[in-house]
Amino acid sequence: MSVGYQAVGWNRQKKLYDRTLALGVGLYLALFLAISAAVNPNATAETLVIRAFGTGALLLLHVVLAIGPLCRLDRRFLPLLYNRRHLGVTMFGLALVHGLFSLVQFHAFGDTHPLVSLFTANSRYDSLAWFPFQPLGFVALVILFLMAATSHDFWLANLGAPVWKALHMLVYVAYSLVVAHVVLGSLQAETCPLLTGLVGAGLVAIVALHLVAGWRERALDAEHAGDATDGFVDVCAVDDIEPERAKIVTLGGERVAVFRYDDKVSAVGNACRHQNGPLGEGRIIDGCITCPWHGYQYRPEDGCSPPPFTEKVPTYDVRVTRGRVLVRSEAHAPGTPVAPAQVHAMGSRDA
To answer: Do residues 150 and 167 touch, judged by C-beta distance below 8 A?
Structure first.
């Protein structure tokens, strides 16, 4: 959804992003194949293709997993989040080519069906050193396929946000399987520890990013301790909220986005109905709260998306007293109109 309430589709920005992504992937594959052929001239073309597409998919998977926490830490990474689905689908495409070439090269020329051979050729499940690593990659590929196939708002709408979100959280299961697949395969087939070391470094970087972002988020989940009067909680000073922006507080166990705009203050639930994006990290554009993740918009006075869209978020009663913002901790039903609290120009006197 755009600021003008039109379906985004492949707009100019997304087309430019896709062309850049395609060029980057093409350059990576070409460089990998050229350098690998020069360093290891005895390697077959099939082996080089398997390695090129496999490492390309692994690199993109790390980028996909890093985007989320990076956006929590710095707003400048939000454009990557806006296009993350395209990156994820591209990553699956590379992984699929890697898997198909591997299946053909290692399992297609015997008497056993390739998929049966994949799971039976190596049965040493009791040995960590020789544990069958190829089935791990296959299961990861199935998960990535399910994610790529449902990476569209059609499936988000029909599956529902909770189910869709749970499905796409399986990316962490797929990542764990991929790491085990690569490390075991590298240890069993190669004498150079470089690939294992790089995968280990990537794993440490991903875990560190998520831990840092999670630690930063802890403060937002702490219940606001302001004095409550008639159910209203003192959450901040008016001047603590930047114009056209919001302050996020936790009331009644839920995150609330308190927006200041046009000498008014309104409060809505912080979770966007699209993909639970943080509305409080967005801003007011054309009179509407605009989610920083994908541009979904809501009117601050009633939490409704402008027609023809039907998304709604909860709203909260707000007061402004002596330059302080007070919010009732109990939410109204999504889409309930609530009159904004009026604020004087400097935000320092009673409304």
So the answer is: yes
